[in-house]
Design a protein that fits this description.
The complex is a heterodimer of chains A (115) and B (115). With 115 residues, chain A is mainly β. Chain A is built from no helices and eleven strands. The radius of gyration of chain A is 13 Å and the shape is globular. Classes of the chains: A mainly beta (115), B mainly beta (115).
Chain lengths: 115, 115
Amino acid sequence: KAGVTQTPRYLIKTRGQQVTLSCSPISGHRSVSWYQQTPGQGLQFLFEYFSETQRNKGNFPGRFSGRQFSNSRSEMNVSTLELGDSALYLCASSPRVDGNTGELFFGEGSRLTVL
Amino acid sequence: AQSVTQLGSHVSVSEGALVLLRCNYSSSVPPYLFWYVQYPNQGLQLLLKYTSAATLVKGINGFEAEFKKSETSFHLTKPSAHMSDAAEYFCAVSDPNQAGTALIFGKGTTLSVSS
């Protein structure tokens, strides 16, 4: 079974631009969540989608948004990039549909550098 | 609100020595607790989880953790370290009453293993 696939793996943007990251979950997984990982703040929850609906949202500004498609693939978008948005963005999928069991399967991440 | 504190951002042990990585949590409800491992340039992998069953939890690669409610701790141990255990380890907590898969992660502990 293929794992969680994230594209692109690396990208460089400049301040003010926007970026879209893509995530394909493990086949059959309907929940997709996104995390931001930085040296200073560690791993922070961005949002989670289940059946094309945002189920949970972390404490990030509105510049960070996401969506999920009917095939469970998900994208996240960051608009008006700031230097502080430089981070590893991790996508995780989960097979569970109820309760917060924390069984997450992570992709290798998309490393964003903002210049 | 929930939070996780990992004591020691860096732990160094010799091959064959005991590994002890400390995690304390704060939660207003009985939590679910997790340990994840991240190898360089990879995503996170679930090591083990506590979901209110047995307080001593065994995970992959010989790791185990004990949930101690009185100490609000969930320390990770391994009797004998191996070179391949060198990685970053994250403790995480979730609210089992909340739908979805949002996890609160600690800042991580980097484990170094010397020969």
